[in-house]
Amino acid sequence: MNNSDLANALLQACQRRGIMLATAESCTGGMIIAALTDIAGSSAMVDRGFITYSNEAKMEMLGVSAATLDAHGAVSRETVLEMAAGALVRSQAGLALAVTGIAGPGGGSAEKPVGLVWFGIAITGRPVVAERQLFADNGRDFIRRETVRHALELGLRALA
Q: What residue stretches are annotated with the CinA C-terminal domain (predicted)?
């Protein structure tokens, strides 16, 4: 499935469950919410998207703690868990998808290479979960598109 088909399937899954969806995006800069809102009628299932590119935005908009960012960095399991939880609490959504990663071309390190992305999934009444992916360093556009695809797939799996 392409990203448009995945987005449509995720919206249908939200509609079947009677829940809204929110996103908290860093490395994708709003591409996930854009994929969802490109679809006519998505306003019935999409509540909001938080684009939290800076650490300050993560703290102010999502409630990510400064201590978490200081200890683990923006691209970490701990941060994405707080991003997803914060998006759920600060919205009318029953499902929140969060992403934070290093899309490149710079910014990578041995511990956190270009292509590293953390995904967070928060669903009302369930523990927040995180998943790590390391995408091939095939350029910034590739990493961002693959991040969108994987986030949509994770949302679908979470609602299955």
A: 5-154
Mean pLDDT of all residues belonging to the chain: 98
Q: What is the CATH number of domain 3-40+47-159?
A: 3.90.950.20
* 158 pLDDT more than 90: yes
Interior CA angle at 60 toward 115 and 108, to 5°? 20
- Virtual CA dihedral for 49, 54, 60, 61, nearest 10 degrees? 0
Whether the model clears a pTM of 0.85, i.e. scores above it, the answer is: yes
First to last CA, the chain: 16
